[in-house]
Amino acid sequence: MVDDAIFTEILSFAGYLPDKVVLTKEIAPLGSIPRKIDFERLTGIKSHREAGDGQGSVELAFEASIMALKRGNIKPEDIDLIINCSVSKLDSELQQILEPSFSSLLAESLGAINADHFDVANACSGMITALKVADMYIQMGMAKHVLVTSGEFASPVIYEAQKVSYWLNPGAVPSLSVGDGGAAYLLGATTNPNMLRFAEPHTLAQYDSYCIADAANKAPGPKMRTKGRQLHKVAMKQLLPSFQRAIDVLKLDWLEIDHIITHQTSKKIIERGNNSTAEIFGQCKCYHICVDETGNTASTTHAIALEKSLQENHFSAGEDVLLHSYGSGLNIFIAHFIIPQGVQSWS
Predict the structure, then answer these.
(1) Which residues contact 41 (CB under 8 A, 6 or more apart)?
(2) Which residues contact 239 (CB under 8 A, 6 or more apart)?
(3) Cα-flanking dihedrals φ and ψ of residue 71, to 5°?
(4) How far apart are CA 233 and CA 230, in angstroms?
(5) Enclosing H/E stretch for 109
(6) DSSP 334
(7) pLDDT at 249
(8) Contact 175, 294 (CB under 8 A)
(9) CB neighbours of 186 closer than 8 A, spacing ≥ 6?
(10) What are the angstrom distances between the C-alpha of 266 and each of 20, 66, 174, 189, 211?
(11) What pLDDT does 104 receive?
(12) Per-residue b/e over 313-335, b at no fewer than 16 CB within 10 Å?
């Protein structure tokens, strides 16, 4: 190891959920989906959150960013770089934010007057991808403090899906599983090489058609079409190999990992994943689930799961966390980090 080498640590994290709670039985009552599918029972999702009046993707990311900066005791003017990785870049009127960049709008809102900023896109794996980019900036000495953030205003796809025939558009049914939220990670420099590390990213581009977001027809906002069964089958097939690669690359002992958070797609799928990994690697210490109350919040899902677990006092400083992301593509990216000091005093 080179003396005085620079590495990266997560100084703080935050997940933000808007106040509005929508029950699954309200958007997908029994009998509304073909073959009398009980969507709540199928997914284990009981509710999700939706952005309030005047809230869009930027506002959701802003709320999480303010929380992360407060917890990390960093002022906005001390941020060197802001990276945004939202999938849904919508304002409160369902208009797509194309220019200026989402990150520049966030920098202005925060008052981060000294920060460079740019956006990164990698579907639901965007935040872990952005964490890796931030890690590279810090290790090269190009930034001291980096804010990685996302705001997912995804719930409009629910209401687009409700307007179509599920018999003719079965790919619209998975849209009912999403929710809104914001997320942020504050990163800084350290001399400890183990505070934040990454397994090798993996992309299976032959499945890129399994989940597609597009503009809605004859209406503002987005739509999403997903080949749910096929996507689930491929994801489950890749789950064990991806964890095995991470264990090998990062030299981890599965049974000694304190917390594992995989992509929050549905409670039932996460439980199946836990059963599969337990059969091969043994039962891990803690497999976190929050999707039953939040829905699938795309790139923000891991930070929101971290936030829920933080509020339930599951974390202690020095414990480790493995984040496992799936993104449309199909891309898989895994990060491993150490919970920072002071976590138990965060509000």
Answers:
(1) none
(2) 262, 273, 276, 277
(3) -70, -35
(4) 5
(5) helix 102-110
(6) E
(7) 96
(8) no
(9) 10, 11, 12, 13, 68, 69, 71, 72, 74, 145, 146, 147
(10) 20, 28, 10, 35, 15
(11) 95
(12) eebeeebbbbbbbbbbbbbbbbb
At residue 201, what are phi and psi to the nearest 5 degrees?
A: -65, 150
pLDDT of residue 1: 42
DSSP designation for 3: T
The low-confidence residues of the chain, meaning pLDDT below 70, are 1-3
Per-residue pLDDT, 3: 57
In our burial notation (b when 16+ CB lie closer than 10 A, e otherwise), range 183-202 reads: bbbbbbbbeeeebbbbbebb
Q: Which of 124, 145, 69, 60 is nearest to 297 (CA)?
A: 124
| Tokens, residue 181 | 């939220």
Q: pLDDT of 135-163, one tens digit each?
A: 999 999 999 999 999 999 999 999 999 99
**pLDDT computed for residue 227 by the predictor:** 92
The amino acid at 172: A
DSSP structure class, residue 94: S
Q: Give the Cβ contact number of residue 275 at 10 Å.
A: 11
- CB 124, CB 298: distance < 8 Å: yes
How far is it, in rounded angstroms, from Cα 316 to Cα 341? 8
Task: List b or e across 278-307, with b for residues whose CB sees 16 or more CB atoms inside 10 angstroms.
Answer: eeebeebeebbbbbbbbbbbbbbbbbbbbb
Residue 146: strand, helix, or coil: strand
Does residue 173 sit in helix, strand or coil? helix
pTM over the 0.90 mark:
yes
CA angle 340, 346, 347 (to 5 degrees): 160
Contact 267, 179 (CB under 8 A): no
pLDDT value of position 221 = 86
Q: Write the single-letter amino acid at 151.
A: G
